[in-house]
Design a protein that fits this description.
With 391 residues, the protein is α+β, with helices and mostly antiparallel strands. The chain is built from ten helices and 15 strands. The protein has four domains: 120 residues, Helix Hairpins (Orthogonal Bundle), CATH 1.10.287.110; 94 residues, HSP40/DNAj peptide-binding domain; 43 residues, no CATH class; 79 residues, Urease metallochaperone UreE, N-terminal domain (HSP40/DNAj peptide-binding domain, Sandwich). The longest helix is centred in the N-terminal third of the chain and has 17 residues. The chain is elongated.
Length: 391
């Protein structure tokens, strides 16, 4: 089994005080916690390594063993002169022959007195008979944790997206538990973690795959204090709330409107998460939006195109007058300045509206109309195809 430098893992010196070790552990545990790094195997392994180092260095007896032998006695490998494998063979992995040696005595002492190896391990672990009893790791102390964000979709009409909207919506969120103040327990006795049943791991499903993940409630120790009966150890309780939201003018489909601190509640005084409104804007009967600009195609008659006129065109704010000059061609485009949507980044700016005209031919032509058109053709005999060089 590979030896680990627990001091190096926690980033502290060998003479570090208990509060230094605890401070470094909390910083690293927050950094590599599975909740902060979901689906990150490397961070999960690092979190377990940090937890293992803290379990040893935070316990005075375990730390003495680690300082004396270079690694913790419960994890001695087969190469150690104190492992059961080496003792049974009579030969230590380091090349020292312990055959015939009286392990009841320390070197240089007679059988009449002195400290035995059994006494050393008894003193360090509080046990007897030369064996070590494993000290169960303390359950992790709860730390402040910001609440999770909430996302809610909201359907808006074309006009509501243009003007903006203030309304109330129902949000199913959570808030910090009033009984345990977000700790998840009330300081009761240590029990087996009910979430992972003491294994320190919980199963997660991703599509058709199942994988294990470090239990967030006990941080992989398998033990925790008796959960709070009000929040069942979650640190938060459910709440249904009417939240007033303000949708600014100019939102489009896919816009995210943030409502601060209306997400799920935090723990131990940490801030709640935020509420995000995801907007989905409906279509207009005539208008099409692209960015902040608005587009529309409007039909005009042959006389209107030839002689020029004024027509009414629909806009987001109602109807507007548009001048059609004489000789207008089909497909020609006109612009109404600042008749588009307000800019989300700068509400004082607005997009434009663009109008494309299409000349509509009469569907039914009477004999009288045909006569008029023939006379028009006689008076205007110019061939546009010949002008373009197509004939």
């Amino acid at each position: 089994m590979a030896k680990k430098d627990y001091y190096n893992i926690l980033g502290v010196k060998k003479d570090a005080k208990a509060d230094e070790i605890k401070k470094s552990y909390r910083r690293l545990a927050r950094k590599y916690h599975p909740d902060v790094n979901p689906n990150d195997k490397g961070s999960e392994d690092k979190f377990k390594e940090v937890q293992e180092a803290y379990d040893v260095l935070s316990d005075d007896k375990k730390r003495k063993v680690f300082d004396r032998f270079g690694y913790y006695a419960d994890n001695l490998d087969a190469d150690s002169p104190f492992s059961s494998g080496a003792a049974s063979s009579g030969q230590a992995g380091g090349g020292f022959d312990f055959s015939g040696f009286d392990f009841s005595q320390t070197p240089g002492q007679s059988s009449g007195g002195g400290s035995s190896f059994r006494d050393i391990f008894s003193d360090l672990f509080g046990g007897g008979g030369g064996g070590s009893s494993r000290v169960q790791p303390e359950p992790p102390k709860p730390m402040p944790k910001k609440g999770r964000d909430i996302e809610i979709p909201l359907a808006l009409s074309f006009e509501e997206a243009f003007t903006g909207l203030t309304t109330n919506i129902t949000v199913n969120r959570s808030e910090q538990c009033s009984r345990c103040q977000g700790a998840g327990d009330t300081g009761g006795p240590v029990v087996t973690c009910p979430t992972c049943k003491g294994s320190g791991q919980v199963m997660r499903t991703g599509g058709r795959l199942q994988f294990s993940q470090t239990c967030a409630d006990c941080e992989g120790t398998g033990r925790r204090r008796q959960p709070c009966s009000l929040c069942n150890g979650k640190g938060v309780t459910p709440k249904t709330e009417q939240v007033k939201i303000k949708i600014p003018a100019g939102v489009d489909t896919g816009s995210r409107v943030r409502v601060p601190k209306k997400g799920h509640g935090g723990r131990l005084g940490a801030e709640p998460g935020d509420l995000f409104i995801l907007t989905n804007v409906g279509k207009h009967l005539f208008l099409t939006r692209k960015g902040d600009n608005v587009y529309i195609t409007v039909p005009i008659t042959v006389p209107e195109a030839a002689l020029g006129t004024k027509i009414e065109v629909p806009t987001v704010e109602g109807k507007a007058q548009l001048k059609i000059p004489s000789g207008t061609e089909s497909g020609q485009k006109f612009r109404l300045r600042e008749r588009g949507f307000p800019s989300l980044r700068n509400p004082s700016l607005r997009g434009d509206q663009f109008i494309e005209v299409k000349i509509a031919m009469p569907r039914v032509i009477s004999e009288e109309t045909k006569g008029v058109l023939k006379e028009f053709e006689r008076l205007n005999s110019e061939n546009p195809r010949k002008v373009m060089g197509l004939e």
